[in-house]
Amino acid sequence: MTRSRHFNYTLTPTRLNNAKPQEKPYKLTDGGGLYVLVMPRGAKTWIYQYSLDGKRREVTIGRYPEIGVADARDRHAEYRAMVEHGSNPAAYKRADDAERKARAELKADEGQFKAFSLKWLDERLGSKSDGYSKQMRSSLERFVWPDIGSKALEDVKAAHVLAIIEKRRDTPNTAENVRVLIQQVYNYAIQKLLVETNPALALRGVIQVPKAEHHRHLSEPELGAFWRAVGKQGAHPSTTAATKLLMYSMCRKAEVLRAKWSEIDTDKAQWDIPAARMKSRRPHRVYLSTQALELLEVQRALTGAGEYVFPSAFRANVPMADATLNHLFKRLDFGVPEFSPHGTRGTAATLLREHGFSRDVVELLLAHTERSQTAASYHHHELEAERRRALQYLADETDRQAAISAAGNVVNIKDRVA
Q1: Using an 8 Å Cβ cutoff, are 346 and 214 in contact?
Q2: Which of 191, 246, 278, 336 is the most exposed place for a label (fewest CB within 10 A)?
């Protein structure tokens, strides 16, 4: 590190103002490597020349009189201090200029729908799951930005939003989801005082959305047939294992497919899912049944060297895609059409309730958020023993129903009622 010597600045505003252009550029030295370069057309530029790592370098500070004498010397002092500490002012200036340019571009674009919707994604969905945020961004990219992304927020009218959702009239749920997405962005823009009206709000109800159908759950005989069909499908072993853990754990599809080996403690027979991956945004513990532990033991032999319990068959460093499980369920032929992965949760919950397990235990197993604050306070305790017993009973009963189905002793529901 070099020590800068003391010096006296020599330039004054009067001298700079009186400096006339010449046929060739010339310097007016101020001191300490700081000078003003006067160009043939009259432009006057502050420049700092310095030595670093045995090389002579220079950095442009800016034009005079936009940058006055006092400001130029303040910047010069900052740059000299950098040189004394071995830093390169020119590199710092380039990075600073790039950052200021980016900020200026962002400010200029902030009023555009795309730029503001990105801001909305960052500021309003930051606490949501990565999967949900990616889904919202994908919808914006596919359905919204191509039509209004470059428009100023205040220039987007109801007619523009109507044109977007009319393109999706054949898929009414998608159309309404896109309308609600635009509405949410504009709600935030109104809160930010950027606009006063919401062009998507008046279009509520333009697209008639079919009444939502809840995911069908299976009866006990149907569960047995389903379990046998999973084993006979001939799917990849990891896909079959993920399907079975879906049932054993009562977790959501995304929670199972993104399971990591670091979350699973087989000695304690438990799987701790972090809050970031849970819909409730609270950590959730799954108490593993004997069958689940056996499944994981086999799976560890297949994938234990990696991060994910159920990795993609194509890339070991990413989890299995949701579509993989969806496609398996669509291929299953066991007498119940349109049974979805989410239906396993309802199937398990119904079976446990019908066999005497309390609502509190089942709700904890499903990781549902309790709306009642009193009940939520009550649920703070783990009910570990009851939950372990429930999940072991679920696995045993699933196996039992599969055995009954295999033996051809499925009891007709009507006969049972009779």
Answers
A1: yes
A2: 191
